Amino acid sequence: MKEKYTVEKVYENVKVEEGIYKLSIKGKFEVKPGQFYLLRAWDIEPTLSRPISIHDVDDEKISFLYSVVGRGTEILSKLKNGDEIKITGPLGNGFDSEIISGKVAIICGGIGTAPMLYLAKTLKNSTVDFYAGFRTESTIVDNVEKYVNKLELSTEDGSIGHKGYVTDNFKPEEYDYVLCCGPEIMMYKVVRMCEEKNVPVYISMEKKMACGIGACLVCTCKTKSGRKRTCKEGPVFLGSELILNE
């Protein structure tokens, strides 16, 4: 199976903080929060496109927040206004904002906060508390506060907010739904906490992907109904359906 792409032009690609960039493309995009695109700004090498989650969408553009971690994202970070970029998407199964209601907690960590801004914006019939955890002070949640009831920050070094982990002050029993994305060890803990309190939790899995379109089976994860493709059936799964190996 070969990926189908469109060629777009970069509107903006700015450094948000050390190692973190936001890339924007002008246009109208119909997407669900939690979905992703394959981005590519090269012809041959690296072989694979890079799966990047949707950070934000408005009437004029779509934005991707990404961390520079290898050759592909290093190339992306060098793009400037007017440069061509190939995109495939939207891909994957995102958060279903229509069934999520009531009091909602979004809990995320590190670059796992990237897809949660647009998610917070779409939950218009919910009261949303946003929990974000980082190793040290970060600016990537600066635009979140205007869309949520409460923003609670945690840092491991205590540079801002609570000193410790994002799960330290989180009480799942206070919420109707919990939505989570971030490091696997954090997501596993959140799932356990929610299961103990019988609170439904949806998590956005982060797995290494090859094709990104469900053909290669590289990104499968274990569920109670068999192995599922993170790029196709996911990346958003109901926490109670997953078999988590810590």
TrEMBL record:
Keyword terms, alphabetized: 2Fe-2S, Electron transport, FAD, Flavoprotein, Iron, Iron-sulfur, Metal-binding, Pyrimidine biosynthesis, Transport
The keyword Transport is assigned to this record: yes
Binding positions for FAD per the UniProt entry: R50, P51, I52, S53, G72, T73
Cofactor note: Binds 1 [2Fe-2S] cluster per subunit. Binds 1 FAD per subunit.
SUPFAM superfamilies: Ferredoxin reductase-like, C-terminal NADP-linked domain, Riboflavin synthase domain-like
One of the protein's GO biological processes: 'de novo' UMP biosynthetic process
The protein's role, per its UniProt record: Responsible for channeling the electrons from the oxidation of dihydroorotate from the FMN redox center in the PyrD type B subunit to the ultimate electron acceptor NAD(+).
Family: Belongs to the PyrK family.
PANTHER family: DIHYDROOROTATE DEHYDROGENASE B (NAD(+)), ELECTRON TRANSFER SUBUNIT, DIHYDROOROTATE DEHYDROGENASE B (NAD(+)), ELECTRON TRANSFER SUBUNIT-RELATED
NCBIfam families to which the protein is assigned, alphabetical: PRK00054.1-3 (NF000798)
Identification of the protein by name: Dihydroorotate dehydrogenase B (NAD(+)), electron transfer subunit
Species per Swiss-Prot/TrEMBL record: Clostridium felsineum
